[in-house]
Design a protein that fits this description.
Layout: H1 2-22, E1 38-42, H2 56-73, E2 80-83, E3 91-93, E4 102-103, E5 108-111, E6 117-122, E7 126-132, E8 137-143, H3 145-149, H4 152-164, E9 171-175, E10 185-186, H5 188-194, E11 202-205, E12 208-211, H6 213-223, E13 231-233, H7 248-251, E14 259-265
Parallel strand pairs: 2-4, 2-6, 3-5, 9-13
Antiparallel strand pairs: 1-14, 5-8, 6-14, 7-8, 7-9, 10-12, 11-12
The structure holds zinc ion (ZN).
């Protein structure tokens, strides 16, 4: 048992080192790799918590963590547009005039403006990145079970289409590190809520039911016309990787600790 852990641990370190050699913040997804105009980032535990709580003394640290993280990516804090995050399906179009703002009551952001960076924080929920190279449109959505249940991913794609003419078949989507079917245990209420979606989203183990949120997201994206080969899903589970990510389910902290996801066009 101890030996196995040692090997796994070293494998992770080795993998991290390999990536570090390429770039300090490696591409999360290979799907966006050829689009050199994109900047995509996802912080790790070592970058510190990025969650803004509205309490100035506590937020001071998060602000400093954000500043340090964005500096490494070559992004100015003043060019960040943040979603307020309320587990809704509200998706907003933003532009350069929103730089530096937090858009209240929203969980998804879309823009075709260069030089501004969309951001959300997550600590188990799905960070979902969208890019349409034809029309140069990006989007970023925050999807936990509530957002998925309210079809936030579908709404994001529909809004990209309606506002900027993005065709679903052209949109690339990356689902980032988030809690996976190995750890997302659910009760009867959630089972009933998602029951109509598909059988393949549930995993049964020892009388317990687990929900595969990433699969739910994938099914919803396919239903709205995104091509299967244009969806990349991170296999990383935030709960499984305490050395790398915060997890709300695992840590149950009094003050939420979270990673930040960011996407922008140069
Ligand atoms: Zn897990």
């Amino acid at each position: 048992m101890i030996i196995a852990f040692f090997i796994v641990y070293h494998k992770i370190i080795f993998y991290d080192d390999l990536l570090k050699k390429k770039t300090m913040y490696p591409y999360l997804f290979s799907i966006f790799k050829k689009h050199k105009n994109l900047i995509i980032g996802f912080s790790r535990k070592r970058d510190g918590s990025m969650k803004l709580t509205g309490d100035f003394l506590r937020d001071k640290t998060s602000f400093e963590n954000r500043q340090r993280f964005f500096e490494k990516l070559g992004i100015k804090l003043s060019s960040i547009v943040s979603a307020g995050l309320i587990h809704s399906n509200n998706v907003q179009i933003v532009d350069i005039g929103d730089a530096g703002k937090i858009i209240p009551d929203t969980d998804g952001l879309i823009t075709n403006s260069k030089g501004i960076f969309l951001s959300i924080t997550v600590a188990d929920c799905l960070p979902v990145f969208f890019y349409d190279d034809e029309n140069k449109v990006i989007a970023l959505s925050h999807a936990g079970w509530r957002g998925l249940h309210k079809n936030i991913l579908q709404i994001t794609v529909e809004k990209m289409n309606k506002s900027f003419g993005s065709k679903p078949q052209d949109i690339l989507v990356g689902i980032g590190p988030s809690i996976s079917k190995c750890h997302y245990e659910i009760g009867k209420d959630l089972k009933e809520k998602f029951d109509l979606t598909s059988r393949e989203i549930f995993v049964k183990r020892k009388e317990k039911t687990f929900l595969d949120l990433k699969k739910v997201g994938e099914i919803q994206l396919l239903n709205v016309g995104i091509k299967k080969q244009n969806i990349e899903i991170s296999q990383e589970c935030t709960f499984c990787m305490p050395h790398k990510y915060f997890s709300y389910r695992r840590d149950k902290p009094k003050i939420v600790q979270a990673m930040i996801a960011v996407i922008g066009m140069k």
